[in-house]
Amino acid sequence: MPPTENLRLQRQKLNELVLERLLDWIMDGTLAMGERLNAEKIAQCLGVSRMPVREAFTMLEQLGLAEAIPYVGYKLIELDDKDVHELYLMRQMLEPQAAYFACQAIDTDGVEELRTIQEQLELEIASDEPDPKRIHSLNRDFHFAIYQYANMDRLYNVIRSLWNSLSFYKLVYGKRYITDKTAADDMIHQHRTMLTCLEDGDAEGIKNLLFEDLEHHTVDVPAAVSSILGRDGKNPVIQNL
Asked: Which domains, ranges and CATH numbers included, belong to the chain?
């Protein structure tokens, strides 16, 4: 391998490691919603140069967890309970319809792909040390593996944008799947039921299932946001980096 290629791969690996640490800090509260990301301080804290840190910031933005502010730099996104309520209402309007059309078009290979993702998700949840980041990722993969079969690119992209807007909270809130067995069991049951609907070609069934689930989340999720952010709806300042 040419030396330049080896250096590129090393740098790529380093920015992924920085990203992993940033995600850990988001989940444990070290970094709070709306917080400005200081590349120099984070680089010093991790003992790396600023380049992989900046690259990790870009990756955070792609995940919907950060935004670039002109002349300021990167900051983590900020949501309150009203924002989350509105985003879930929009999801409730769009995702059941996307699943309805996907159910009419999905093939055997698509169902098998979903089964593989679901198996990985259930293995992760049942493992001795489940990783909430991986659970979040697999849950997202499961849903979007369905929506792609609706064959509506604009609808798919709008739904993806809504998920990205909720990424910070879904990542933090997703820790309940490793601390609350009932929540984990409910998600597993819902996914299995969705799979059954897809296998049976029950488009109305999967549409109604998603609608009812998201209708429930439009109430309980914003309430949980308020709990996480504090009664005044603002982030607790735990540690500035």
From this structure: 3-76 (1.10.10.10), 81-229 (1.20.120.530)
